[in-house]
Amino acid sequence: EPEVTQTPSHQVTQMGQEVILRCVPISNHLYFYWYRQILGQKVEFLVSFYNNEISEKSEIFDDQFSVERPDGSNFTLKIRSTKLEDSAMYFCASNLREQETQYFGPGTRLLVL
Amino acid sequence: AQSVTQPDIHITVSEGASLELRCNYSYGATPYLFWYVQSPGQGLQLLLKYFSGDTLVQGIKGFEAEFKRSQSSFNLRKPSVHWSDAAEYFCAVGAVTNAGKSTFGDGTTLTVKP
Questions:
Q1: Sequence-distant (≥ 6) Cβ neighbours of residue A73 within 8 angstroms
Q2: CB distance from B35 to chain A under 8 Å?
Q3: Which residues sit opposite B92 in a β-bridge?
Q4: Contact call for residues B37 and B87 (beta carbons, < 8 A)
Q5: Which of A67-76, A93-102, B21-30 has the lowest average pLDDT?
Q6: In Å, how far is B15's CA from the nearest CA of chain A?
Q7: pLDDT digits (tens, 9 = 90+) for A19-75
Q8: Is B94 exposed, middle or buried (0-12, 13-18, 19+ CB in 10 A)?
Q9: What does the DSSP 8-state code read for residue A60?
Q10: In sequence order, what DSSP letters do the residues of B27-60 get, joined into one string?
């Protein structure tokens, strides 16, 4: 069964450094999403992406964040200058159509020191 | 704005007992509703979803949920819990125009006693 993959599974970085989290959505999917989950808290929507542009973003998704689909398979989340509070599990998700089930990747655990 | 409330932070049940996890939502139109399960350190696995139609939906692992519009609820049930069901459970509501933009509840941690 096709699945969403994410790399790396864990990343440790220093405050102020840039990080890029990578996702490979299911190959024929058209809608892509990033969510984050701070340890012990709920999953929060960050951004949705369709047709090579952001379709919606939350207030969390400020100027420090960006997303990109650099080729036909990858979907990346970049945090330009990480802060301690960016430490979280980041989930990528995708679906074929908006009104369909989205499939989540296993997540990348980011730790900012 | 859409929102989800899971009133129970932590529930403990004995193995073999029945389970009901509560979920209440707030949304201005017909919602898309989901239940996910998350084992420690793992990703989110979709248990079941409601988009339209029959208000009682069946999911994987023997779970079911019932959409009650009058009560704005989407409670998750299982008639007989197994030890492997111990995990965190999240209810989520999706917008009609963008089902991917889901709003999650705070989660309910399920502990199963032997």
A1: A24, A25, A27
A2: no
A3: B34, B104
A4: yes
A5: A93-102
A6: 25
A7: 999 999 999 999 999 999 998 888 999 999 999 999 989 999 999 999 999 887 899
A8: buried
A9: T
A10: -SSPPEEEEEEE-TT---EEEEEE-SS-SEEE-G
Whether residue B2 contacts residue B25, with contact meaning beta carbons closer than 8 Å, is answered with yes
Beta carbons of A81 and A17 less than 8 angstroms apart: yes
Shortest CA gap A63–chain B (Å): 20
CB A84 within 8 A of CB A17: no
Longest Cα–Cα distance in chain B: 44
What SS3 class is residue A85?
helix
> Between chains, do B49 and A101 touch, taking CB under 8 Å as contact?
yes
Interatomic CA distance for residues B111 and B114, integer angstroms: 10
